[in-house]
């Protein structure tokens, strides 16, 4: 039986103001480019970003990828490949937290149906603006997007 390890806003802030927060970031590709969603919630509201989520206690990275894809995009993950990590100094510099995102390139099944955490989504070959400050550098360095 799976336990609920969700945190209240107060617990989240208390814990992640002291230790790094592990996240997974999803890179989905098509002939049209890579999928980005525009955040409808804080932090980084209104910015384009990779779909992603915090890894919860006792959750494997692969399970976190599957959960994130289902919850945020309404899709099933078929296959994943780890392609690196993203550090987020912009979060720390803006008084937030210190996430470290493990990035997975994913193949998927289903139609993209973003949840209410996204204003919209799109497929991109070039960096859209505004985009999350730390993710743009990763995407450029991997050749996944251009300027």
**Percent strand:** 35-45%
The secondary-structure element order is: HEEEEHEHEEH
CATH architecture: Alpha-Beta Complex
Q: CATH-wise, what's the superfamily?
A: Nucleoside Triphosphate Pyrophosphohydrolase
The Cα radius of gyration reads 15 Å
Mean pLDDT: 93
Largest sheet properties: 7 strands, mixed
Total number of strands: 7
- For the terminal residues, how far apart are their CA atoms? 47 Å
Structural class: alpha+beta
Query: Unreliable stretches, pLDDT < 50, 5 or more residues?
Result: none
Bulk shape: globular
**Number of contiguous helices:** 4
CATH topology: Nucleoside Triphosphate Pyrophosphohydrolase
CATH class: Alpha Beta
How many structural units, i.e. domains?
Answer: 1
Helix content: 10-25%
